[in-house]
Specification:
3 domains, Chitinase A, domain 3, 492 residues, 9 strands, flat, Alpha-Beta Plaits, 14 helices, alpha+beta, Trigger factor, domain 2, four-stranded antiparallel sheet, five-stranded antiparallel sheet, 46% helix
């Protein structure tokens, strides 16, 4: 067996294997025996028919492209010789695709060629001399005011309105029925439907149409569904609506005073104490976010200065990982995947195309970080893996399959590589901070202990992927706060 290799683009190697005539003949003879045992040939016991009679039973014509005997022999030859060929050529293939048979001639020999994706060689460039620094967003009184207003919104109450018509910002309960060409359509009718006027949840023009109506009033109006509406049957279609107003309520926010601060927590004696606590948490959030953002820039810088070609197979595998991550997030929120793709108007193929570019960026980042870990001599002890698994047992009590995966050899390997990449980023950040003491410490927030809203746990993939793990400071409270009020008031 003669094996030759030729480098190819995108971190692939073309492996060509030449087999002598006697090796080919043994494979063909074995193919005849196997097919003979599976094929009924009149006048012969299974496996005893001569080749010429077997070929006649199989409909094989000499010289024809379709030849099941040859096909069987090719499969046997490829599976029997590929491992030895890889070892002889010292090629570490990521996957084994189907071969291309260049030659297959009885009495002469056979040659097949296969293009193998291999783990790309990463040539590091500069990854420590950054032309940028840490940027910490300042916390001013306006940001504190915003959080106070969000807290007021979360503690708001809804008051019935009887002396005026609807205006933007009101909570209303309506009944409506929509028709198209005089016929009702699916999803176009509701009784006691809650709606925040001006929230933009309905199709354009719907919420504006009820402004000015009073409780008990009704109205008819026509609207056209947007062209990009998820339900293609209604996209761009004109519809007629009849709406009746059942209730109107307005949100009443508590005054920002000492009593409000004590309502938030007895630990705040007055509003000034609450504001001081909010400022402290915002500043902690800002420093945590600055650390994440700086880590992301470090990764981008290292990847931009590295030289590597990513094989398609790794990108395709990462696309599948991202698709699985989407399914997992939806499952955690109780959203059926099929319903989600229907609403957004995309299929699997479209999502895969959209994921390809970010998947390639992620693969490059992971490969570069792994190479830096080699360069820095970073290793993860078994005790750290055991600690992560113990954390997973507590965190994922309701997901025993995930815990079982982490406990497996493959899961432990995943955790080790993840922690190794995390330690690389942490070490690079801390090394830069040591050389710039004027910046001050950039501590991580531990599961939201200091944040206004909880942030994600860094060890889940911190810094190894693009984007901070949820450490974005104070998030909008409009939906979460007002929804809680609505439930308490019995509107929804």
């Amino acid at each position: 067996m003669n094996v030759t290799t030729t480098p190819a683009p995108r971190s692939t190697v073309v492996l060509e294997v030449e087999l002598p005539a006697d090796r080919l003949q043994r494979a063909i003879d074995e193919s005849v025996r196997r097919l003979g045992r599976r094929t009924r040939v009149p006048g012969f016991r299974p496996g005893k028919a001569p080749r010429v009679m077997l070929e006649r039973a199989l409909g094989v014509q000499r010289g024809a492209a379709a030849n099941p005997i040859y096909d069987e022999a090719k499969d046997q030859l490829f599976s029997a010789t590929m491992a030895d060929a890889l070892e002889q050529a010292q090629v570490d293939a990521l996957t084994i695709p189907d071969p291309e048979w260049v030659r297959f001639e009885e009495g002469s020999g056979a040659t097949y060629r296969v293009t193998l994706p291999v783990r790309p060689a990463v040539q590091l460039g500069d990854y420590t001399n950054y032309p940028f620094g840490v940027e910490i967003d300042p916390v001013d009184g306006a940001k504190v005011d915003r959080v106070i207003d969000e807290l007021r919104d979360q503690h708001a109450s809804l008051r019935a309105v009887e002396d005026r018509p609807i205006r933007t910002g009101d909570w209303v309960v309506i009944s409506f029925e929509g028709t198209r060409d005089g016929q009702p359509f699916e999803g176009g009718r509701a009784e006691r439907f809650p709606m925040i006027v001006g929230a933009g949840r309905m199709i354009p023009g719907f919420e504006e149409a009820v402004v000015g109506l009073s409780a008990g009033e009704e109205k008819d109006f026509d609207l056209t569904f947007p062209d990009e509406y998820p339900d293609q049957a209604m996209a761009g279609q004109a519809a007629h609506f009849h709406v009746a107003v059942r209730e109107i309520r307005e949100k009443v926010l508590p005054e920002a005073d000492d009593a409000f601060a004590q309502e938030i927590s007895p630990s705040f004696p007055d509003l000034a104490a609450l504001r001081a606590d909010v400022r402290r948490r915002l500043e902690a959030n800002a420093r945590d976010h600055a650390r994440h953002a700086f880590a992301d820039r470090i990764i981008d810088y290292a990847v931009a200065n590295a030289t590597l070609e990513v094989p398609d197979i790794l990108v395709e595998q990462e696309v599948e990982v991202m698709h699985d991550e989407l399914r997992l997030r939806l499952a955690e929120q109780g959203i059926p995947y099929e319903e989600y793709v229907r609403v957004i108007g995309k299929d699997d193929a479209t999502l895969h195309r959209e994921y390809r570019e970010p998947a390639e960026r992620r693969v490059k980042a992971l490969l570069v970080l792994a190479k830096i870990a080699d360069q820095e001599g970073i290793e993860v002890p078994d005790a750290a893996i055991d600690a992560e698994i113990a954390h997973a047992r507590t965190r994922y009590v309701e997901n025993p399959r995930l815990v079982e995966y982490f406990e497996s050899a493959r899961g432990r390997a995943y955790l080790r590589s993840t922690l190794r990449r995390t330690q690389v980023v942490e070490q690079l950040v801390d090394r830069w901070l040591e050389g710039h003491p004027e910046v001050g410490p950039l501590p991580h927030l531990e599961d939201g202990a200091e944040s206004v809203r909880p942030v994600g746990r860094l060890a889940d993939e911190a810094g190894a992927q693009a984007g901070p793990a949820g450490a974005t400071g104070v998030a909008e409270a409009e939906e979460s706060g007002t929804a809680a009020v609505a439930v308490e008031e019995g509107i929804v």
